[in-house]
Task: structure prediction
Amino acid sequence: MASRIEHRAAFPVPAKAVHAAFVDRDFLAERLRVLGGKDARLIDYTERGAEVVFRLRQGVDAARLPSVARTVIKGDLVVERTEGWRPDGTGFAGDTTAAVSGVPGDIKGRFALVDSGSGSVWTTSGEVKVRIPFVGGKVESVIAEQVGRLLAAEAEFTATWLAEHGG
Result:
């Protein structure tokens, strides 16, 4: 059984401005520098018409992992995450997948970014699936919680970025 991920963030600027930041190379590089952890970097970045697809590597030092995760993950945690963003009829939509080093399983999610009132709203829904007998559910819960914290930190970073860069 998978663990769910649900996240929502509101911004005081239109979806178009938030999307422009989300897919900006300088934004991604700075976000990774600030939030990406150990050996973070932008691995790949591709524009296909109106769609932008990029792959990130982020790291978490083993000492910062909860004990249940350390029983399964030997060494530092490395996450490779792919995001694809494109315009849709209501704003912007995206998909994400991620793999965690040393953990048999995956993370999948969908994004929506739409105008709302005088600003915009970014929503994420997804799931974490870990295929390890007996402890898989516990590890899923830990990963889902960490993803939720990361999304909240990324939303806060984005709000600051937009305020500083006239978004």
Observations:
- The mean pLDDT is 91.
- The longest strand covers residues 77-88.
- Helices lie at 15-22, 25-35, 67-70, 136-164.
